[in-house]
Amino acid sequence: MSEIEDPEVKGKKKRGRPGKQAPTTNKKPRKTPAEKAVGVARGRGKANGVAQHNGDGGDPVTLFEVVKLGKSAMQSVVDEWIESYKQDRDLALLDLINFFIQCSGCKGTVRIEMFRNMQNAEIIRKMTEEFDEDSGDYPLTMPGPLWKKFRYNFCEFISVLIRQCQYSIIYDEYMMDTVISLLTGLSDSQVRAFRHTSTLAAMKLMTALVNVALNLSIHQDNTQRQYEAERNKIAGKRANEKLELLLQKRKELQENQDEIENMMNSIFKGIFVHRYRDAIAEIRAICIEEIGVWMKMYSDAFLNDSYLKYVGWTLHDRQGEVRLKCLKALQNLYTNRELFPKLELFTNRFKDRIVSMTLDKEYDVAVEAIRLVTLILQGSEDALSNEDCENVYHLVYSAHRPVAVAAGEFLHRKLFSRHDPQAEEALAKRRGRSSPNGNLIRMLVLFFLESELHEHAAYLVDSLWESSQELLKDWECMTELLLEEAVQGEEVLSDRQESALIELMVCTIRQAAEAHPPVGRGTGKRVLTAKERKTQIDDKNKLTEHFIMALPMLLSKYQADSEKVANLLQIPQFFDLDVYSAGRMEKHLDALLKQIRLVVDKHIEMDVLEACSKTYSILCSEEYTIMNRVDIARSQLIDEMTDRFAHSVEELLQEAEEADDDDIYNVLSMLKRLTAFHNAHDLTRWDLFGSCYRLLKAGIEQGSMPEQIAVQALQCSHYSVLWQLVKITEGAPSKAFMLLCDLLMIFSHQLVSGGREGLQPLVFNPDSTLQNELLNFVLDHVFIDQDDESQSMEGDEEDEANKIEALHKRRNLLAAFCKLIIYDIVDMPAAADIFKHYMKYYNDYGDIIKETLSKTRQTDKILCAKTLILSLQQLFNELLQDQGPNLDRTSSHVSGIKELARRFALTFGLDQIKTREAVATLHKDGIEFAFKYQNPRGPEFPPINLAFLEVLSEFSSKLIRQDKKTVHSYLEKFMSESMSERREDVWLPLISYRNSLLTGGDEDHMSVTSGSSSKAGSVRSKKGRPPLHKKRIEEESSVEGLWMLRNDTLQTPGALQTPQLTSTVLRENRPAEHMPDPDSEPGSENDFMQMSWLGQQKMEEVNRKDRTGMNYIKARSNQGVRRGLMEDDAEPIFEDVMMSSRGQLEDMNEEFEDTMVIDLPPSRNRRERAELRPDFFDSAAMIEDESVSKTSRK
Questions:
Q1: How far is the C-alpha of 445 from the C-alpha of 493, rounded, in Å?
Q2: Of the residues 382, 502, 701, 1050, which has the maximum number of CB atoms within 10 A of its CB?
Q3: Sign of CA pseudo-dihedral 899, 901, 905, 908
Q4: What span, in angstroms and rounded, lies between the C-alpha atoms of 1114 and 43?
Q5: For residue 863, what are the contacts with CB-CB under 8 A and spacing of at least 6?
Q6: Is 1105 helix (H, G, I), strand (E, B) or coil?
Q7: Picking from 4-18, 285-299, 412-426, 815-829, which range would have the lowest pLDDT averaged per residue?
Q8: CA 509: distance to chain centroid?
Q9: 3-state DSSP assignment of residue 766
Q10: What are 837-863's pLDDT values in tens digits?
């Protein structure tokens, strides 16, 4: 309960400490019997956040522990302390003093004798000696969610303490004097932890006192009004007793106000004025943040130049963190319009500094400075000069998007806010416009022209997109401005303004259609939310419907202006072309094609012609029904141009040296048009190469051909050759692919093996671009759906034979590429795109993919595991793109990914020791992927990829027991404290994954040692193994060699460089490279580089624990066992397996290796396909003879 309810503590007590008192025998909630017997206060907990509990391991016993854990409501904690203060002030204050000492990370404890007999300076000096010099960390600087919560609880405790004590205890001239005196002494300490913690406590204490003072001021005003009202009554109705009570209450409130002011002055002059310029930036930031709170909370007392000057001076602080706090404190003040008169002098004095901070080297500071300048502008139009505004204007072109967006908001407030909406609407109505934004768009155009940065129109549009989106999407008003005719007495847009408006309009169309910032801003395309995707679709439909009708009119008006036409012709690429047919707007399509043809006839500038060619290419897309109509128009245009070109060439060649400028112009103009079109369209059937060749031949023979014609003829011939090459390669891409794979095998790094170092110059290693091309070819030609083929003529034997032959060819293509992966010619991570199709195409390619997985695991277990998890991540990303961030975890797609993960987990076999590091690395990559992207809606929502943990759970059974603990510890590094408490459905993947790591210890034991009980006898009888005791002796003598062999098998045969994954799906970051050191000796530390992560996690766990567990390992070391980094804390079960059961495990694996076949339903064509499975991975195998295919037809 609050102390306000106890009348015994009301009123003031004399200043000073009482004499010694006997230890109280009253029961206190957080005291143990031991403490009662000794008679000391709570507060003997360990420092540095190590909680001290009672002997039975029960609840925390110190105030520091209670606040740190935060399990109890802070008000109940404070009420308990107030109750103890009523019973014994010294012991309660001692508890509070030790609370501040322990919150600073000090190991020492202030005893009751020290508290009563020593001065604060002596106590602080004694506590300084108790600090842990080995560590610079203390609770306020420690990382992790627990300590972040502690900081919040620490501040809340002080605030609640003052609030609960505000009616009497803080006026007893004892508690507050003691606390303020202690904090003042600590804040002047040379120890940073003391100074930091006490400053934070003092500033929060001051904030709480300001709130008390504000309440007292309100009560005083109310009392004064009641007194005045009662005194103004006539004598007969006036109540003298009430007047006396009101006078007494006013006097008491004034005394309390004076007392609070004395406390605040002590804190401000004793702590703030020294610490706001402390050497530590965090301490300075605390002071500035809190003084901003005081000025906003109690502006009548604090919002004056005496306090504002500290904020103004700190605007020049050398640390961005402190400058940021200054700006945010000022933003809170300038947000309130009523405070502007009190800020006028400050604004005039520090305005120049604030404006200059918009160019701060710290982007966060610059953003907040721009926002503050915007608030100043909103409060007073005259506060900023034109020069001040211009300093902010140009920031809309900044490459840093947050800065540009903030500057765009300022620009919108200054220039684009309607000053007289009624007048603008009247003007729009008079001119016949549908929108009143005409003047604002004119102003935008003028600003763009005056900025003289015309090539950055896209940046300007992006800066204004969030604040002025309604204006920028007013394409109707823009079109009306461009199409309107001059009216007497009113100006129309100039030619320069029209060009600028068209450029801006095209940029707004692009921004709306693509829904992402222009190149150079942002870190790349992000996944759009459902709301953003809906807005994008709506905007695209809106702009399509408008410009389908408006674009032909715009082209008609500006067809003679090459710059305007080139920009306008970019608009169709952002259309939703289905609207033409769905809305029955073919007549507008005909109008557009007509205007484009006129543009082609009028212009020979390459940018205009290329824009026309690109527009035709977009409109001719086969996926749209308008393709036939556009193709006819295009063919007619090409026919006309080729006829005119052939005629012009004949005339030029006939006249030869007598050709005039007109003849040369005719040939050059037509050649430019045809070259521009030939770049995007296949014009092979018009045989342009023949005419170009004649021109080039005549130029060589006669030497009089103009250079421009020769260049264009060469360019056109180049395009003709390229298009013909495309046609040639389309006939036999599979043969070319097979030949290329075989050539890469022949001229790979294996060419120099066997003493053939002289052939080193012939070795060819494909670069990432070539590897990507090979991979894309496989994805496009191997993993294709055959539903249509299977449904047609199922009973036709000939058709069935054709299907088998086609499958045989596709299997050869896949095998050729997989062979490159196995022999380390193509980087192993490229196999992720192959592995992810394992389930879907199991009947067709399951044996090839499984063999590839087996061979790659033999090459490098860890990199193979990384490739497996990468393939699952790719499938998950594809699913995210299709379904959005809100996945349906019960869908068949998610179940398919989980099933694939389960099949991958089975391939790790039964020997968990061999695959230990690989499985741990797989979990590490999976956890990092799950927490890679935070939810844009806030930290209270799950990360976007969190559902991937449900897939990762399929591999938990492959972790041995001690590794589950390590992986679980690694998982907790990514989790906030709130995550572990969430139980909603969206957090189920995290819950299930944690459970999979926290359970199954016994199962791990069984999985590792099961061979000795169930299969050991039979295996030994088959293999002829020696007796167990003999084998134990042999293995104890050779276990070092086994570990050496195990490490050797982890080495990669060649340098593996991760390819750039450029398939059609979203790729993740490439796995880290594994580069073994060829100079390292066997068994050296370099041999364990690929196992470094698990080893580091284990070492971290060992360092956090007591070292008593090392005795067991020392005892085992006498047997000559050599261990890796990951075995420092191995359990006896694991060591027994390593020393006595390794042979049994090998026997068990040999027996199960052939039986661990994934059992899937048999294929309908399994019998026919059985004969199509030769050894695809023979390094000597080359492309198969055509006789194989002939045999399959028989």
A1: 10
A2: 502
A3: positive
A4: 39
A5: 828, 829, 856, 1052, 1056, 1071, 1074
A6: coil
A7: 4-18
A8: 27
A9: coil
A10: 888 888 888 899 989 988 888 888 889
User: For the chain, what is the mean pLDDT?
Assistant: 76
- The position carrying tokens 């990762």 is 952
- Which whole-number Å values give the CA distances from 148 to 145, 153, 974, 987, 997, in the listed order? 5, 9, 14, 22, 26
The dihedral region occupied by 561, where left means phi > 0, alpha psi between -120 and 50, and beta the remainder, is beta
267 pLDDT more than 90: yes
- pTM value > 0.85: no
- The angle that helices 961-974 and 1092-1104 make with each other, rounded to 10 degrees, is 80
Q: What's phi and psi for 490, nearest 5 deg?
A: -130, 140
Report residue 1075 as tokens: 């580069």
**Predicted confidence band of residue 1078 (pLDDT cuts 50, 70, 90):** very low
The residues, ordered by sequence, that sit 6+ positions from 959 with a Cβ below 8 Å of its Cβ are 912, 919, 920, 923, 967, 997, 1004
Residue 530 Cα to chain centre, angstroms? 18
CB 403 within 8 A of CB 370: yes
Rounded distance, CA 388 to CA 408, Å?
A: 15
Tokens 């990914």 sit at which residue? 897
- What's the CA gap between 1081 and 1079, in Å, rounded? 6
pLDDT at residue 312 greater than cutoff 90: yes
DSSP 483-514: HPPPBTTB----HHHHHHHHHHHHHHHHHHHH
Please state, in angstroms and rounded to a whole number, the distance separating the CA atoms of residues 186 and 100.
Answer: 9
| Structure letter (DSSP) for residue 1078 | T
Q: Do 207 and 161 meet the contact criterion of CB atoms below 8 Å apart?
A: no
For the chain, the distance separating the N- and C-terminal CA atoms, rounded to the nearest angstrom, is 96
Rg of the chain (C-alpha set): 40
CA angle 879, 884, 887 (to 5 degrees): 70
C-alpha closest to that of 156 among 88, 268, 86, 72:
72
Give the lowest-confidence range in 647-651, 793-797, 1055-1059. 1055-1059
- Cα gap 846→509, rounded to integer Å: 47
840, with CB counted inside 10 A (0-12, 13-18, 19+), is middle
Can you give the pLDDT at residue 787? 52
Token pair for 45: 């907990």
Q: H helices then E strands: how many in the chain?
A: 56, 0
With the C-alpha atoms ordered 909, 913, 918, 924, is the resulting torsion angle positive or negative?
Answer: positive
pLDDT tens track for 179-223: 999 999 999 999 899 999 999 999 999 999 999 999 999 998 998
pLDDT in tens, 908-959: 888 888 888 888 888 988 888 888 888 777 777 888 888 888 888 888 888 8
Residue 1096 has pLDDT above 70, yes or no: no
* Nearest 10 degrees: Cα torsion 1026, 1027, 1029, 1035: 30
What burial class does residue 71 get, using C-beta atoms within 10 Å of its C-beta: 0-12 exposed, 13-18 middle, 19+ buried? exposed
DSSP tag of 53: B
H or E segment to which residue 230 belongs: helix 192-231
Q: What are φ and ψ of residue 136, in 5° steps?
A: -95, 0
- Cβ atoms < 10 Å from Cβ of 128: 16
Amino acid 39 reads G
Contact (Cβ atoms closer than 8 angstroms) between residue 544 and residue 575: yes
Q: For residue 856, which amino acid is it?
A: T
Between the alpha carbon of residue 608 and those of residues 495, 541, 676, 717, the distances in Å are 18, 26, 9, 21
Residue 646 has which token pair? 């052939």
The residue count of the chain comes to 1194
User: Half-sphere exposure (CA, 13 Å, Cβ side) for 487?
Assistant: 8
Q: Strand, coil or helix: what is 60?
A: strand
